[in-house]
Design a protein that fits this description.
Blueprint lengths: L22 E4 L4 E4 L2 E2 H7 L2 H10 L5 H13 L5 H8 L7 H12 L11 H25 L14 H10 L5 H13 L7 H10 L5 H12 L7 H12 L5 H10 L17 H17 L3 H17 L8 H11 L7 H22 L25
Antiparallel strand pairs: 1-2, 2-3
Helix pairs in contact: 1-8, 2-8, 2-16, 3-6, 5-6, 5-10, 6-7, 6-16, 7-8, 8-13, 8-15, 8-16, 9-10, 9-16, 10-16, 11-15, 12-14, 13-15
Bound molecules: acetyl coenzyme *A.
């Protein structure tokens, strides 16, 4: 029997599970880099698809490489009618993350099951998943309201096309740009729960659709991607700036987690939260002030005052919901927005994993009894 080489750590805290050159995070100084490039610089100068290319292939694309990649994605945006028909049978009240997880897994029914570490196989899967996931999210959002899905528009870029499929209205260029930056900010974040889940699934050499479906399931929980939806619920519950202090004090007294705060790695304000806050402010200039923003600012002030000494500050989920709300996106679609973007990071790790794969098979510390005799049912 293999002996455990280190102590059991709940949540695998501090245990490296991979060697990776995809992203770097410095939680003490609030730094996040994708392939060595600071997220703030990418947010100013790049686009989501260029960033996805960088994450997955490890370098910024040339003009031609980027144009080809964008073209391929545009050509693969449609989903097969079988998948649309299947989605029509989903209950309208079902959560969009469950709809997405099911439809992502369903893509595997149409494409090769066995993952191959070959450039062509990887490229096809990357293009299909990046192209089709937004279409499936928007299709479910339309179908649950009784509408036919809006077909993708070849004339719109990645972010603008998604907002168009979701709202049936072409967004303002600034709205599309802000959404694109949100996608970049959420695209990758080292060894988080959903990425680890993707890697465990990838390590069995199953298909990349199953890898993404696993990761979507993991992202859905309120301690991970689901927190952005919970932030809006919390701001609604608080209702006014005056209620912030008693609400937060009550949470702290009753050991209730304040959504959108705290992070396993960041012990300062998440750099993505800073950028998202600036984006929210730019959006409010375009579309009008949001009273929830005043509540959010007060929440951040009080939480920082009360919990800052424990290293608990606003994380990426705190301001993203306010941006999405202003873009006309419903709260239960916030986590699918995260998923659309994080597909890039999951696929980058999938590709990296395929190159050096060894199946994940950790160990456990058994704490149960041993050698217990079986007791017949009539004697229990
Ligand atoms: N509100 C109040 N207290 C908190 C919070 C919070 N949001 N986060 C951590 N704490 C406290 C805990 O109560 C605990 O206190 P204690 O030592 O007195 O018992 C201490 O800080 C450590 O908390 P853990 O939950 O053990 O920290 P961990 O690293 O395991 O969890 C997590 C990190 C899950 C993100 C946590 O901070 C949390 O639940 N936050 C709220 C949910 C959230 O916003 N999630 C999104 C994270 S970002 C992302 O996944 C994209």
């Amino acid at each position: 029997m293999t002996k455990p080489s280190c102590e059991y750590q709940p949540g695998l805290e501090g245990i490296p599970v991979a060697q990776s050159s995809i992203s770097f995070v410095d939680g003490k100084n609030g730094i996040l880099e994708y392939r060595g490039i600071n997220i703030e610089e990418l947010a100013q100068k790049s686009t989501f698809l260029e960033t996805a290319y960088l994450l997955i292939w490890g370098k910024l694309p040339t003009k031609d490489e980027l144009a080809n990649f964008q073209d391929e994605i545009t050509r693969h945006r449609r989903v097969k009618y079988h998948i649309r028909d299947m989605m029509k049978c989903f209950p309208e009240s079902g959560h969009p993350m469950d709809a997405l997880q099911t439809s992502a897994a369903a893509l595997g029914l149409f494409y090769s099951r066995r993952a191959l570490a070959k450039e062509e196989y990887i490229r096809d899967a990357v293009v299909r998943l990046l192209a089709k996931i937004p279409t499936m999210v928007a299709a479910f959002a339309q179908m649950r309201m009784g509408n036919d899905p809006v077909q993708p528009s070849d004339n719109l870029n990645y972010a603008a096309n998604f907002l168009y499929m979701l709202t049936e209205k072409e967004p303002e260029p600034l709205e599309a740009r802000i959404f694109d930056v949100c996608l970049m900010l959420h695209a990758e974040h080292t060894m988080n729960a959903s990425t680890f889940s993707a890697m465990v699934t990838a390590s069995t050499l199953t298909d990349p659709y199953a890898v993404v479906a696993s990761a979507v399931g993991t992202l859905a929980g309120p301690l991970h991607g689901g927190a952005n939806e919970e932030v809006l619920v919390m701001l609604e519950e608080i209702g006014s700036v005056e209620n912030v202090r008693p609400y937060i004090e009550d949470c702290i007294e009753n050991k209730k987690k304040i959504m959108g705060f705290g992070h396993r790695v960041y012990k300062v304000k998440d750099p993505r939260a800073k950028i998202l806050q600036q984006l929210a402010e730019r959006l409010f200039e375009l579309t009008g002030h949001d009273e929830y923003y005043d509540i959010a600012l007060e929440v951040e002030k009080v939480v920082t005052e009360k919990l800052g000494h424990k290293g608990i500050y606003a994380n990426v989920d705190f301001y993203s919901g306010l941006v999405y709300r202003k873009l006309g996106i419903k709260p239960d679609l916030f986590t699918p927005m995260f998923a659309i973007s994080r597909v890039a990071g999951w696929l980058a790790h999938w590709k990296e994993q395929l190159a050096v794969n060894r199946i994940f098979r950790p160990t456990q510390v058994y704490i149960g009894d041993r050698g217990i005799p079986y007791v017949a049912i009539e004697d229990r």
